[in-house]
């Protein structure tokens, strides 16, 4: 996913999974309108209550709940936790927040990691890492004039580790990028993004890594996929270059291990890849989708409403493409939303309350329909 992460800006990790941001531009007057008991929430954020901050430094993204909804796993580059670039951390929500309670690092602090997720039973975590290719942090993406790009590291493979950080299994071992793995609520399948067919496509494999099957086939980056609550559908973000110039640019960047995530839309398909359709037609960058607990709506991050591309908010839309609704109102960056398995809470990353820094922190709130 990246990551950071998250697009992203941030934009993302988005990886594809990663990212960062800047300071919030909302006025102190707007903030003061929120109640003292819920001061981190903007008044317009009617679906959120009891919003609280979980992390307090660095870039923290792609926080996902355990199957029992009591724990989270996420990626962070927070130097105070002894890491040099994105690593995977585990945290029990009963401990409160991470201002004083340091989360447990799951990854081995070698290479770079992204896109972690609990396996059924909540005692194992799946994530991607570059550590076998190089123990050092890989270089950041190059600065290309007029282009925002993510690096698609070909050294990413997908691993399983226990909560003590011991790697117990390697799930992928093919040349090229394998990352962005998430798990079906049914506990039987994993969806992930891979370059093994020559393009960034979605693949589904059994929970033990066996029987990989490609489920998307169109040119463009397909990633950030999640299963519906009943495991029957998959939602994901994708770019779809159409013109000769767009196709040429996409292929040229991909040959250098880069993607430009500034034009993405949300797509939905059945878990086997059938009945594929484009859900959004908003333009700009729409990404980080996740199913509403009902299975009938999608929450996602988008900058479509703003002239400047760095501002992202959360939106929700019906599966038929109707009913677009804005959920968050931070002045810079909100992304990586995930509902708890019982549908009562929402966790996401935001630049709010970062005291003028570029920190992206984790926030959790009660969800109000």
UniProtKB/TrEMBL annotation:
Keyword Signal listed: yes
| Gene3D superfamilies named in the record | TolB, C-terminal domain (2.120.10.30)
The region annotated as signal peptide is: 1-18
Q: Which UniProt keywords apply?
A: Signal
Q: What InterPro entries does the entry give?
A: 6-blade_b-propeller_TolB-like, WD40
Quote any Pfam family the record assigns. PD40
Domain of life per record: Bacteria
- Belongs to which family? Belongs to the TolB family.
Protein name as it appears in the record: Tol biopolymer transport system component
Q: Name the species this protein comes from.
A: Thermonema lapsum
């Amino acid at each position: 996913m990246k990551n950071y992460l998250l697009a992203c800006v941030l934009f993302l990790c988005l990886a594809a999974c990663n990212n960062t941001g800047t300071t919030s531009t909302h006025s102190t007057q707007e903030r003061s309108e929120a109640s003292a008991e819920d001061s981190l929430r903007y008044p317009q954020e009617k679906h959120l209550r009891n919003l609280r901050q979980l992390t307090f430094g660095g870039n923290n993204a792609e926080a996902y709940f355990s199957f029992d909804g009591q724990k989270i796993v996420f990626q962070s580059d927070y130097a105070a936790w002894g890491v040099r670039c994105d690593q995977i951390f585990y945290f029990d929500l009963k401990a409160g927040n991470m201002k004083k309670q340091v989360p447990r690092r799951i990854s081995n602090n070698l290479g770079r990691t992204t896109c972690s997720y609990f396996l059924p039973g909540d005692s194992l975590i799946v994530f991607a890492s570059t550590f076998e290719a190089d123990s050092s942090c890989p270089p950041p993406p190059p600065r290309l004039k007029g282009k925002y790009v993510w690096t698609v590291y070909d050294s990413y493979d997908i691993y399983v580790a226990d909560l003590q950080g011991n790697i117990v299994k390697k799930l992928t071992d093919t040349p090229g990028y394998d990352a962005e793995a998430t798990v079906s609520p049914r506990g039987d399948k994993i969806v992930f993004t891979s370059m093994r067919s020559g393009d960034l496509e979605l693949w589904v494999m059994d929970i033990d890594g066996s029987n990989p099957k490609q489920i998307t086939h169109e040119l463009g980056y397909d990633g950030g996929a999640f299963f519906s609550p009943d495991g029957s559908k998959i939602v994901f973000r994708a770019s779809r270059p159409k013109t000769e110039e767009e196709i040429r640019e996409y292929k040229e960047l991909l040959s250098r291990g880069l993607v430009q995530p500034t034009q993405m839309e949300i797509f939905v398909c059945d878990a086997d890849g059938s009945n594929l359709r484009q859900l959004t037609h908003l333009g700009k960058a729409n990404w980080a989708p996740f199913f509403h607990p009902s299975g009938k709506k999608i929450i996602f991050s988008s900058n479509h409403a703003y002239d400047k591309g760095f501002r992202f908010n959360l939106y929700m839309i019906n599966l038929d493409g109707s009913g677009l609704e804005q959920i968050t109102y931070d002045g810079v960056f909100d992304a990586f939303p995930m509902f708890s398995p019982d549908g009562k809470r929402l966790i996401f990353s935001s630049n709010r309350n970062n005291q003028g820094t570029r920190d992206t922190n984790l926030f959790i709130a009660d969800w109000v329909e």
